[in-house]
């Protein structure tokens, strides 16, 4: 995971189930959604449970009708805000997209936890695809205990729940680095990807981006990455190939994969930042990749380009603490502190991880440099370089405008990031006073 594993450790905690989902089964035994968690039920609540379940399923079915994906635009994006959409809305979009499969669905997921009607709808879409002859495969991250990491042990996607889908599965050990993908390859002609895990909190309480691309060239690249993970069953060495740019209806698109091209990707993003002449916008939970920090510090010194961004303030605070305790990483602290205090940068004070706590992280991973956009699962961090990640580099002015506006929308929701007083030189004791601006959302700071 490298020396800056805080954000990854945060995301390793599976999304909380959210409000208790209701069951359609009149039984005192727990009921388990195909992609979810056990939900307590009782005979006395069965009538209201059935009504709630029927209403949720009807909502998903109705929403599905509003998302026709035939014919689909070559490139479509969907941005998610904390509280800005319902899980039914996102599920409808996903179910509709999966429903277009005719030959194959290769699914690579870091985290899947969808209780109740939401999980039923997605599971039914996968089963229906298999029933009509679609070859469905699911690769998923399997976490292990990490005694050397000062974080709570992460909950895991339950293999037994995935097994209930009746399709081939392949666990990918998430040690020492994570299988952090959230993509689907459909019929070797289209890809669903982005920063969004398949969990209720990811769909309703986090800032995220979804993107679909209809392109055989891009789909081939993702299919190759999936085939490597499926065959070798490990993160190490995956994505070790170059993908040439692909013309997608007149738009230049290039796929990147780590860990095979992780360092190259960080340098590519940094190069684009350094070459920008008008604007740079960044949304990333953490900001610790050395090439990117260097490029942002140069942009700050030159003062020519409009640069701004947003991160997860809680995780950034943990990064500073981690670096302060590690002499090999402490040199990064002044660079990050200078970016956060010298540029218009804000941060979401998300809920610190605790068992059962909501996962409301600022989770989007977007970089806009003039008219070029980088979107995917890749955090701008050393850990991102070492995990199994994917990114789409898209050169399209209209998309760049929309993504820059999204970053500014998220940025406007939150206050400047709390920066430890010792960060500028990293010479003060670890318990030095920390500056903590109030969170503009009204929640108490973490």
Tell me about this structure.
This protein is α+β, with helices and mostly antiparallel strands. It has a single domain (6-12, 66-416), classed as 2-Layer Sandwich (Endonuclease, Chain A). It contains 13 helices and 20 strands. The strands form four sheets. Strands 12-13-19-18-17-14-15-16-20 form a nine-stranded mixed beta sheet, with helices on both faces. A hairpin with a 3-residue loop joins strand 8 and strand 9. It starts with 5 loop residues before the first helix and ends in a 30-residue tail after the last strand.
Gyration radius, in Å? 21 Å
Strand order of the largest sheet: 12-13-19-18-17-14-15-16-20
State the name of the first-level CATH class: Alpha Beta
CATH architecture: 2-Layer Sandwich
Portion of residues in beta strands equals 15-25%
Write out key terms for the chains shown:
Endonuclease, Chain A; disordered C terminus; nine-stranded mixed sheet; seven-stranded mixed sheet; disordered N terminus; 446 residues; alpha+beta
Brief write-up:
With 446 residues, the chain is an alpha+beta fold. It has a single domain, classed as Endonuclease Chain A (Endonuclease, Chain A, 2-Layer Sandwich), CATH 3.30.870.
Structural topology:
Layout: H1 6-12, E1 31-32, E2 38-39, H2 46-64, E3 75-80, H3 87-98, E4 104-109, E5 112-113, H4 116-131, E6 135-142, H5 159-163, E7 169-173, E8 182-186, E9 190-194, E10 198-199, H6 200-204, E11 208-214, H7 216-232, E12 246-248, E13 251-258, H8 262-275, E14 279-283, H9 290-302, E15 306-312, H10 313-324, H11 332-342, E16 345-348, E17 366-369, E18 372-376, H12 382-386, E19 389-395, H13 397-412, E20 415-416
Parallel strand pairs: 4-6, 5-10, 6-7, 14-15, 15-16
Antiparallel strand pairs: 1-2, 3-11, 4-8, 8-9, 9-11, 12-13, 13-19, 14-17, 16-20, 17-18, 18-19
Helix pairs in contact: 2-3, 2-4, 3-4, 8-9, 9-11
